Amino acid sequence: MYFLLSPAKNLNETRDFTPKMYSEPPLLEEAELLMNDLRPLAPQQLAELMHISDKLALLNAERNANWQPPFTPENAKQAIYMFNGDVYEGIDAYHRNENEISYIHNHVRILSGLYGVLRPLDLMQPYRLEMGTALPNLRGKNLYEFWGDRITKRLNFTLKCSEDHIVVNLASQEYFKVIQPAKLNARIITPIFKDGKNGQNFKVVSFYAKRARGLMVRYAAENAIEDVELLKDFDLEGYSFHAAMSSENEWVFLRNHVGE
């Protein structure tokens, strides 16, 4: 069983915590090809391409200029500790023990516009390149055309080590779109997290849903879950499985806010 996650825009580049375990991104040579297209872009070009502020564009131009393999613990950081968005706050990697981090590394794959797919302990250097970015490259006009079926093939290689061939899709639509489900040798289960008030109007609230995706990974790691059916017992921060709203491969989890 493997969990798919999206990356985060916010990064924690501090060097306050450096675990001993690390690995190298499996598609790093592909990332180098993309960086060859990114590095020549001036800050203003990055701002227009990515629809970001001038300040962020300047930061990422500097990141691109400094991006250079080989990655080491001195010039890079493990992905699970670098990404710093809502999903990763839900996982809370800095407070997971060694066994839990090992579980996360072995069961989680992070989709990335630049790196393709990352394992949690893969070293990475900071970047900004969302999967939906229309970056012209040697294979086409955007990142979906650049990656083609390469990420799917990499996941299939990983799935060879899996007994149940199950992928739990916790990625956003933007990132999951890079996967080619018909070519993926796995059953895909997509958890959906909905919040309601006083037992009514249950809907997906982006902030809560992103955090819940990370919470589910944390729950699986804390309980060393290997049987996907046990994910239906997920109950962190008030969520519970709702069978009536669920289908075979879309599992709905509800949380009720009372008196708000």
TrEMBL record:
GO terms for biological process: response to hydroperoxide. GO terms for cellular component: cytosol. It holds the Pfam family H2O2_YaaD. It comes from the Bacteria. InterPro entries: YaaA. HAMAP family: UPF0246. Belongs to the UPF0246 family. This is UPF0246 protein HMPREF9021_00646. It comes from Simonsiella muelleri ATCC 29453.
